[in-house]
């Protein structure tokens, strides 16, 4: 039985990047052997085991044979006779098909080190096209390593276009598409991810709404926004995803949320930015409009919504909003005004709400005065 470190840990180690997790392949073993050593089995179709101490993943070497459509229709052989080279051959890219033995030596049957040095993403074999998920994975790798100068090999780029044209992406679930989007967002490279998808005609298959608005200027704009977010150590998916939706209307955002299956918090923030960015982007907010915005945001019970909205718009501008400090202070002050204060003074029924609104409005008027030249002072809306 031999154990090899494989995949991303080897790739990122050679690139000098931080290794976040380690995966191993085990050659010449059976499930029973690993179970006897205390490993915990977590997979049945292709047995994956957790190490009894480190909890890292150890998978038996396997081969795969395509059966049917989609990215799940594979028959696996994980008998002890499967070799390391056979296991590596089923992987997607040459740079992901390098193994490291326990003595540190590298096994690289598909010249992955050469492609790492040349900064090229190249598929291993024609079997690449058996799995439509690889279209998204290549886009994600191209995005993640864009800063290192990686490009997609011409043959691989052509194969991706062919796979898209054959409708392979239609077999992916909306949830799986979002998972790949989320990984690209966490890498801080969502602009590159979308741009690669657009270059192989995949973006229109995944989200026609995003594809319609895609352009070189938008690509550059998103690059700048995500760069700012990285500098500020902002990594929340909902804050990052909504940057691609700032020019879209509520109907379109709702459609995207269905086709990509956005989590509720991601969808909701994109909608909130759409609804409130005009008033918050303004250099001189109208107090009445601002109070209406606070009410719709339910600032009184959900202050985190407002905080997220302000931060999302800061990313969009790559700087705090024109009235950032005043908005934050005013929001905190109006939140301190509550119905109990007026009930204690003897107000009843509808009079409580009226007095509450008037008191909150008075606070906002102290911070913001509407001028006739308001329209000339507006910060542009996206």
Provide keyphrases for this structure.
51% helix, alpha+beta, 382 residues, 7-stranded mixed sheet, 9% strand, Beta Polymerase, domain 2
What do you see in this structure?
The chain has 382 residues and is α+β, with helices and mostly antiparallel strands. It has a domain of 124 residues: Beta Polymerase, domain 2, CATH 3.30.460.10. The chain is 51% helix and 9% strand. It is built from 19 helices and eleven strands. The strands form three sheets. The protein has a seven-stranded mixed beta sheet. Helix 13 packs antiparallel against helix 14, helix 14 runs antiparallel to helix 15 and helix 15 crosses helix 19. The longest helix has 18 residues. It is elongated, with a radius of gyration of 26 Å. The N and C termini lie far apart (59 Å). The C terminus is likely disordered.
Bin the helical content.
40-55%
| Low-pLDDT segments, ≥5 res | 371-382
CATH superfamily of the domain at 1-124: Beta Polymerase, domain 2
In the CATH hierarchy, the third-tier topology of the domain at 1-124 is known as Beta Polymerase, domain 2
- Widest β-sheet, arrangement of strands: 3-4-5-2-1-8-9
Question: How would you state the average pLDDT, rounded?
Answer: 92
Strand segment tally = 11
Q: For this structure, what is the CATH class of the domain at 1-124?
A: Alpha Beta
Number of helices: 19
- Strand composition percent: 5-15%
Based on helices, strands and strand pairing, what is the structural class?
A: alpha+beta
**Beginning-to-end CA distance, first to last residue:** 59 Å
Radius of gyration: 26 Å
How do the SSEs run, as a string of H and E?
A: EHEHEEEEEHEEHEHEHHHHHHHHHHHHHH
The major β-sheet equals:
7 strands, mixed
For the record, the CATH architecture of the domain at 1-124 stands as 2-Layer Sandwich
């Amino acid at each position: 039985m031999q154990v090899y470190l494989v995949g991303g840990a080897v790739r990122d180690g050679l690139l000098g990047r931080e290794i976040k997790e380690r995966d191993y392949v085990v050659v010449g073993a059976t499930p029973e052997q690993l179970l006897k050593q205390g490993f915990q089995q977590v997979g049945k179709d292709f047995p994956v085991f957790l190490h009894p101490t480190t909890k890292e993943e150890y998978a038996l070497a396997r081969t795969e044979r395509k059966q049917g459509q989609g990215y799940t229709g594979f028959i696996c052989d994980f008998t002890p006779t499967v070799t390391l080279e056979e296991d590596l051959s089923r992987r997607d890219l040459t740079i992901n098909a390098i193994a490291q033995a326990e003595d540190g030596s590298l096994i690289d049957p598909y010249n992955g080190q050469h492609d790492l040095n040349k900064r090229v993403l190249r598929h291993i074999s024609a079997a690449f096209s058996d799995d439509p998920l690889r279209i998204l994975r290549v886009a994600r790798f191209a995005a993640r390593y864009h800063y290192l100068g990686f490009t997609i090999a011409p043959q691989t780029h052509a194969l991706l276009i062919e796979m898209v044209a054959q409708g392979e992406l239609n077999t992916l679930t909306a949830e799986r598409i979002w998972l790949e989007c989320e990984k690209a967002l966490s890498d801080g490279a969502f602009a590159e991810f979308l741009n690669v998808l657009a270059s192989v005609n995949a973006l229109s298959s995944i989200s026609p709404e995003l594809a319609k608005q895609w352009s070189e200027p938008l690509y550059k704009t998103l690059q700048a926004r995500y760069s700012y977010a990285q500098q500020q150590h902002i990594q929340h998916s909902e804050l990052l995803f909504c940057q691609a939706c700032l020019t879209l209307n509520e109907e379109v955002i709702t459609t995207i949320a269905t086709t990509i299956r956005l989590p509720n918090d991601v969808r909701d923030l994109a909608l909130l930015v759409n609804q409130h960015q005009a008033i918050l982007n303004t250099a001189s907010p109208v107090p009445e409009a601002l109070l209406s915005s606070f009410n719709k945001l339910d600032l009184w019970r959900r202050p985190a919504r407002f905080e997220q909205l302000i931060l999302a718009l800061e990313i969009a501008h790559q700087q705090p909003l024109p009235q950032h400090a005043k908005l934050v202070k005013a929001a905190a002050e109006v939140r301190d005004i509550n119905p109990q204060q007026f009930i204690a003074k003897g107000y009843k029924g509808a009079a409580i709400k009226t007095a509450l609104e008037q008191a909150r409005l008075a606070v906002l008027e102290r911070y913001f005065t509407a001028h006739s030249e308001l329209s000339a002072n507006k910060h542009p809306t996206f």
